[in-house]
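Hey, can you fold this one?
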Amino acid sequence: MSSDTIVTLARELHESCRLAGSEENELLTLPPDPMITWLVMVLRQRPCPPAPPDVSAGDWERLLEYLRSHWIGPALYWHIRQLPDACRPPDSCMHTLHHLWLDAEVQTIRAGQQIRRVVEALEAVGIPVLLLKGPALARRVYPSPAMRQGSDIDLLIHYEDMERGEAVMAALGYTCPVKTAAQSPPIVPTTRTFTPPEEQGNRL
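Sure. Predicted structure:
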């Protein structure tokens, strides 16, 4: 696929599927060729992506800033670090990506500990629980769970266990603005958001 085709398809797709950021589709304001092409090729794990774009330091800084909104900096670093030096971005960019990776690894460890505490507490009172979405995918699909970052943890339990589950979460120090398990009809999907004690950890 040519670089022109990649950029054209990206712009067409994101007319309807908006990219994250402080402004809509701000990632597409970067130099389209070769910067966006290089980014796509690296993330698609092409065995020999093009050489890193010869763009200004400011453009590299903007790329890293925009990627934060998409949570893919750690994934980009994972792929880049396995490339030959000739295919890597400038050292300053690699340094920033490395720090993003280290931070992602720390967050992943903390999230894993948080998940373990909650799941063990629920199972200890006989409540079966299933880990969903991001954290589950991170541990089953990605080469390293640090590649898949997120801001919350999704757990699934049976409807009839919700009231006891709320009590378990409260005992762990979590707070929930709405606890109405007893009033929620079983035919309606019911969700609750629990904030960890002293904001230490992800929302559940």
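Helices lie at 3-13, 32-43, 57-68, 73-80, 91-124, 133-140, 162-171. Let me know if you want another pass with a different chain boundary.
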